[in-house]
Write a structure and sequence with these properties.
The protein is mainly alpha-helical. The protein has 10 helices and no strands. The protein has one domain: Orthogonal Bundle (Tetracycline Repressor, domain 2), CATH 1.10.357.10. Helix 2 crosses helix 5 and helix 9 runs antiparallel to helix 10.
């Protein structure tokens, strides 16, 4: 088996996360994902016997893991500086995608599967959001915010970033993201 085929499941998961970020949960199809990943359709069903929902749950979890690792790294510089860098990365992603790519975790959180069944992608999104919230709350506490205040602000930060991304995509304008970012940085700076 060539290395190209052995990494097919990972390529499929990455392509699914990318498609989730651009078109959402219900518009993401296994056929299009496997085409984008240059992977055989049959082996995709072999690696993801739960079908589309299993694949999207895995893609959501992996996207959540990547953001969690990034937050862990960035927040070493402190909550304010880490958030500043995180927002800069999001801004760059929005501009680079011409405001077409959002957050795959949010996409999985806000859509119910059209074909019914369990919302395992939504469950993966909830787990990711909880980890990010905890990571941010811990950083805020290290910077002198009280425990309750840190938890509340961490929730606000996640909602603010995700909402700012959604607003900018909907309006096809980076200005809403910039306005929300400035306010989020103020919240983190206030003790």
């Amino acid at each position: 088996m060539s290395p190209r085929h052995s990494d097919a499941p990972q390529r499929v998961v990455e392509a699914a996360a990318d498609m989730l970020a651009r078109v959402g949960l219900n518009a993401t199809s296994i056929r299009e994902v496997t085409k984008a990943a240059d992977a055989p359709l049959g082996s995709t069903y072999h690696h993801f016997p739960g079908g589309k929902q299993e694949l999207l749950a895995r893609a959501t979890a992996q996207a959540g893991d990547k953001v969690d690792a990034l937050l862990q790294q960035l927040l070493r510089a402190g909550a304010e500086e880490g958030l500043r860098q995180f927002l800069a990365l999001w801004r760059e992603r929005l501009i680079r995608s011409q405001l077409r790519a959002g957050c795959p975790v949010l996409a999985s959180a806000v859509e119910e599967p059209s074909e019914g069944g369990p919302g395992i992608a939504r469950d993966a999104a909830a787990e990711a959001f909880a980890r990010w919230e905890q990571r941010l709350a811990e950083a805020l506490q290290r910077d002198g915010h009280g425990q309750v205040q840190a938890q509340q602000r961490a929730t606000l930060l996640i909602a603010g970033v995700e909402g700012a991304v959604a607003l900018s995509r909907a309006m096809q304008d980076i200005a809403p993201f910039d306005r929300v970012s400035a306010q989020l940085l103020r919240v983190v700076a206030a003790r």
